[in-house]
Design brief:
By secondary structure, the chain is mainly α. It is about 75% helix and about 0% strand. The protein contains 16 helices and no strands. Helix 12 packs antiparallel against helix 15. The longest helix is centred in the first third of the chain and has 28 residues. The model has no long low-confidence stretch (mean pLDDT about 90).
Amino acid sequence: MKETSKIETDSLQAWLLAARPKTLTGAAVPVMIGVALALVDSLEYEQGTFSWVAAMLCFLFAFLMQIDANFINDFFDFTNGADDCETRLGPRRACAQGWVRLDSMKRAIALTTCAACAVGLPLVWFGGFEMILVGAICVVFCFLYTTHLSYLGLGDVLVVAFFGVVPVTMSYYVQLHACTWQVLIASLACGLVIDALLLVNNFRDRDTDRAVGKNTLVVRIGDDASLALYLCVGVAASFMGLVFWLNGHVLAFVLPLVYMVLHVFTYLKIKRIHKGKALNLCLGETARNIFIYGLTVALGLLL
């Protein structure tokens, strides 16, 4: 994939790049945590209601919505001028590079949206008709994020909501038809952890975003405050894990402390690099840290 100039338009390789498979960890982690919480509680309270089918549907819906969001982001950032081949610092985007035609991307967005809805619809059987409303809200905000809200500095709020609160609580809800305060705190912590990925992404792109009028939170609050916020979201999320300890799952608090150490090291690297394409290394490290967080929380709960 290094020879990106040789990628054929609308080829399989082009679509794989457009789908951004590395971002799927961000979709998997909140569902992983929600499923682990539901499995532990179903066993602890001997309800016997846990369904692996429902769990798999939650994972598939999350994956498809993430791919859909990536396609929408690729298309609208290019048409709005936020993705420029000459000035872009992050990984190259399919529409901007001409790997995928705009008409093809429109059809892919429609197809992926429909596929996500088709996969999510059976969750009505497990969670009730309220799942239709939840799914509709996810689809609507999937579009609003790139087309409007990310330009207003609200992207971080949406990440906490749709990569934390919604997937964690709903993955739990379809199993046990309830949501405890412990689950809600765990969902907020997960959202903060994943927001670190958006923060470093927007920190890297702050100059180009400012130039096209994309007023992300990073653009609004400045460099120093953005760096401090990146550090705080990871540390705060780690200490919010005390809720697991209070609920009798000590390892679910202790094991993720590995994540906090890695997060601090990544923060120091971001602070040292500060600008340029080298921040993509920190983007990759942040994605790795997120996966480690989700894995250690899930293992801590199950062990």
